[in-house]
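Narrative of activities, Objective 1.

The group set out to show that a structural description can be obtained from nothing but a protein's sequence at a throughput compatible with the screening campaign. Below is one input-output pair from the validation batch, recorded exactly as produced.
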Amino acid sequence: MAAGFAQWGNDLYTGRRSYNIVGRRKIWFTISTILVIMSAIFLVKPGLNPGIEFRGGSEFVVADVADKDQQLAIDTVKSVAPDEEPRVTTIGEDSMRIQTSKLESEELGEVKAALAEAYDVPVGNISTSYIGASWGKDISQKAVIGIIVFLLLVTVVMSIYFRNWRMALAALIALFHDLVITVGVYAAVGWEVTPATVIGFLTILGYSIYDTVVVFDKVRENTADTLLQSRWTYAEKANLAVNQTLVRSINTSIVALLPVGAILFVGAVVLGAGTLRDIALALFVGMLIGTFSSVFLATPFEVVLRQREPAIKAHTAKIHAGRAAVGSGSSDEGDLAAAGPTYVPAGALKAGSHQGVTAQPKRRPTKK
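Output recorded for this entry:
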């Protein structure tokens, strides 16, 4: 199996095997649009569930409980403070976490005593704390500022590195896509948004841009001589780059997702609610969506932008017209898949075909 996978990767790199990812970009754009719309709906209803760090309030942690009945905790809190709507979470195998709005010191003591009696544990087994909403507000503001600064730096650095603002714009679209979907999934699941969650959101931006830059670097390398040859279009040469980096994207994603998935399982199933669960869900979803956007969204979108350039547009039309004239392809410049079974992906060579003067070996000048 390993040998077969290696051969598959080698075939993708040389062009013997090619998946028409860029040519079928309408499919990927449709999938991404649906996912973003669904995520936006989840962000409106039910919406994000901010943790106590962001909304402020009092927190009780009851340790060594035998009966983990959450309704019992809700009824106990309401017996002391009828207007409260407590949030109860099971932590690990024998602990309960109860969160309320800010309680006065007298109510705090009464709730603590009532919980000790309800769960039949010593009062010393119940810890209490209060978290102000201003702390969460400060964290939120810094997170927003961090994202804005990150996006600005990404735009500037990528524009300078690739000398092409279109790649920077495509990368930003992919980042926005990844962030919205990840946050939307978090809203759909209903888990509380904690500082660990925010850290996870910020982390996936770095992962996503890294994977996108690797693909774009190969796109730039493959398309540097696009206008100097008449064999392949810009879209076809960019599609070769996506195929050449496909194995790398898959391997990187699997290596990253396996440990994150294990952490998510331990945090969600074994330990219950906690920092591990919060950050692992954001990382798992973000990495998965980030891999998808790097392969199926960023490069196809960049190709759409580049094909609007007069030189690239004229070059593409010329190649398609030539293929149509000899009956070897389609004159529809917007759809690579229309070329049919005779379509030759970039990188694949036809037997007996001449590759041009630029493909000939360079000879050193002889000394006279």
